[in-house]
Amino acid sequence: MHVSHPRTTTPRTRRSVLLTAAAALAVAGPLISAPPSSAATPTTAEVSPHAAQTIDDIGASGAWWVNDLRNFDPKVQARVARLLFSSQGLDLSAYRYNIGGGGTGVSYAPRAPEDFLNDDGSYDWSKDGAGRYFLYAAAKYGVEDLIGFVNSAPAEWKTNNKSCGGYLKADSEQDFAKYVADVTDHFARQGVRLDYISPFNEPTNSFDSCGQEGMLVDPAQRDDIVRALGAEQRSRHQRTGIIADESTSTVKFNSEVPQWISQPGTAQYVAKLAHHTYDNPGDGDRAKVYETSKAAGKQSWSTEICCFGKGGTGWAQEYDPTIDGGLNLSRIIYKDFATAHDSAFQWWVALSEMIGSDPLAKNGDGWNDGLIYYDPDYRTNGNQTLYFTKRYYALGQYSKFVKPGAVAHNVTGAPDGVEVSAYDRDGTWVVVVNNHNSTDTALDVHFNSRSPLRATKAVRTSADENWADVARPSVRGGTMSATLAARSVTTYVLDRQGHGSTALTGALQGKQSGKCLTADASGTTITGCTGAAGQSWSFDAKGTLKGLNGYLTAGSSGLATAAATGDATQRWLLNSNGQIVNEATGKCLDVGGQATTDGSAVILYSCNGGTNEAWTRQ
């Protein structure tokens, strides 16, 4: 489905009437069934002993707003750089620099970035001054991943001679590849190495309304562009990876990536697979991202999202600076890391002018596309005030603490309305917790580790707190205990001494059937939960599920139990939503045909979010 992106809209005139903040809106239910909890009887969430994906970065985009910020006081520009890149601000580990297409035909000036190409084919590297300023600032502050991304090629190589709509001409692919490589080389000479290049963005959106840059790239042309750019980079010995295809939705990603990446000679040039989540995907579509990426032998990144609101994470026009918006952003990050197993999360624009009628309160005239906002009428009224949203602080609950190289561990069994994610890096655990409940909620988190733990920090964002230092949780016997403030995002940091982990043992009960995963002479089935030896499973730090007759294995002919091999066919992820996902195939343990009778076969099947693919540990 084509999504009408706010990037295609024109700026709206602010009304003089100020709107008051709306009441807190309800959020969706929990991602996995868990026993009810209260402050007196907390549910114990379990941190998986098995490591999932390694996190590459957390970032945001520098598209468009830089074209306004070039007119701001240099002190404000410097402050914005600190707010995004310094350790006192978001401390982003990724920054997306927009390689402009010249803005030819684009109707809204801030969304018409300059390119560097002159009419005679030479370059003017003095162009895009503000864009370069923030790119250089990101490099100066040590942002780990600098990403150049293209919305449109320069107009001379487009079928419609515009920087919006149209296609890249088939006979111009090499010229375009050379241009992108020239830009990459130029910045490298300035001491700014682009770590990744994204050569096209939302390739199924035409953007022919020309409110912004964009170009169509059909699947049949995507591999041609990737190969042309990859070969050009290789000939120059550039160390810049290519990310693609920046699909608008997970549905398009899952259906279109296999079409182009399978073409001969293409996959070798792809560093990461990139998707957006404007389709507000459920658990099935997010899990399918993992399967698609596994089939291609690549890691996936979530590289753009914005513009949700009105009580949920789906597309909606709204400006919401409150904790409601902050919690919805944090929920999206949580799902992308815990279910899609993305290795990066990148928000859309870091700044925006789309504040609607009131920069301090919810209103239906603006958009939730930024983290920080500024007055769209700054040219006439001189107002250069920066307006902060809770999304800014919610993103910081991750970006300030979950750094590149951190390893995600699934967390299962959280209380209703609570989402818990855990990351391990250099002897430190970082636990980020979303409490969507309107009341304080007790939480126990058990780390399946033999190593002593010590809580060192707790930071919280809530309706009236922004990165506030709060009381550290108690830790006893490998279990962290805390009381979560209502409607809050809290990050806990715990030091660990030594290494080693313990296994999770017990039965696995199907949510739909109420019966247990059983290994016996007839294969892998469901039967009534009796505590029989064939229903006991041990899950360890290697990710293996060991049963009575051996290790659960994704064989070529289906599920089997076998002797240990150490390969990915015997490694599993226990997702927080109850999915049990094989690392080799990206597929889920599924009760075939949604059967519920004893002896019904358990198979591998594409994850779809069904209750016949949800399991709880007993």
Characterization of this structure:
The chain has 618 residues and is α/β, with parallel strands linked by helices. It has three domains: 56-399, Glycosidases (TIM Barrel), CATH 3.20.20.80; 407-496, Immunoglobulin-like; 504-617, Trefoil (Acidic Fibroblast Growth Factor, subunit A). Helices cover 19% and strands 28% of the residues. The chain has ten helices and 34 strands. The strands form seven sheets. It has a ten-stranded mixed beta sheet with strand order 18-17-21-15-14-13-1-16-20-19, with helices on one face. An eight-stranded parallel beta sheet has the order 8-7-6-5-4-3-2-9. Strand 7, helix 7 and strand 8 (300-304) form a beta-alpha-beta unit. Helix 5 crosses helix 6 (250-261) and helix 6 (250-261) packs parallel to helix 7 (283-296). The two termini are 41 Å apart. Mean pLDDT is 92; it is low at 1-40.
Write the layout of secondary structure elements.
Elements: E1 44-54, E2 57-61, H1 65-69, H2 74-85, E3 94-98, H3 129-140, E4 145-149, H4 173-189, E5 196-198, H5 219-236, E6 241-247, H6 250-261, E7 270-276, H7 283-296, E8 300-304, H8 323-338, E9 344-349, E10 351-352, E11 372-373, H9 378-381, E12 387-388, H10 390-399, E13 407-412, E14 418-425, E15 428-435, E16 441-447, E17 453-462, E18 465-469, E19 474-476, E20 479-484, E21 488-496, E22 504-506, E23 508-510, E24 516-520, E25 523-527, E26 537-539, E27 545-547, E28 550-555, E29 558-562, E30 572-574, E31 580-582, E32 588-591, E33 600-605, E34 615-617
